[in-house]
Design goal:
Layout (H helix, E strand, L loop, with lengths): L9 H36 L6 H18 L3 H23 L8
Length: 103
């Protein structure tokens, strides 16, 4: 692992980007296992897949963490909203159709 500043050419830079992409995919895959478990717990509690208050809480958390690290918070929010829409659709598939929104 080397910092972006330490990369001397595009080959080195691309290798680091590829390394990070591999790590991100692994983390997203791990996150998906928690989404599957969330659907199981929601089913046991009679909760819907989409809980809007939780969606907005995650967005606030991601924006705050992004701002703290210097990442573009608007970009992070767009990425996480897409990720959460996938997660909600996955939960709905696991829970069955016809889930209603709960705040």
């Amino acid at each position: 692992m080397r910092s972006a500043k330490d990369c001397q050419d595009m080959t080195e830079l691309r290798a680091e980007i590829d390394r990070l992409d591999t790590a991100l995919v692994s983390l997203f895959a791990e996150r998906a296992t928690y989404i599957t478990r969330a659907a199981e717990l929601k089913s046991e509690n009679g909760w819907p897949a989409r809980i809007e208050s939780r969606v907005e809480e995650v967005v606030r958390n991601v924006r705050a963490k992004s701002e703290a690290t210097g990442m573009d918070a608007d970009l992070a929010e767009r990425l996480w909203r897409e990720l959460m829409e996938w997660a909600i659709a996955h939960e709905e598939d696991l829970l069955g159709a016809g889930q209603k929104t709960k705040d």
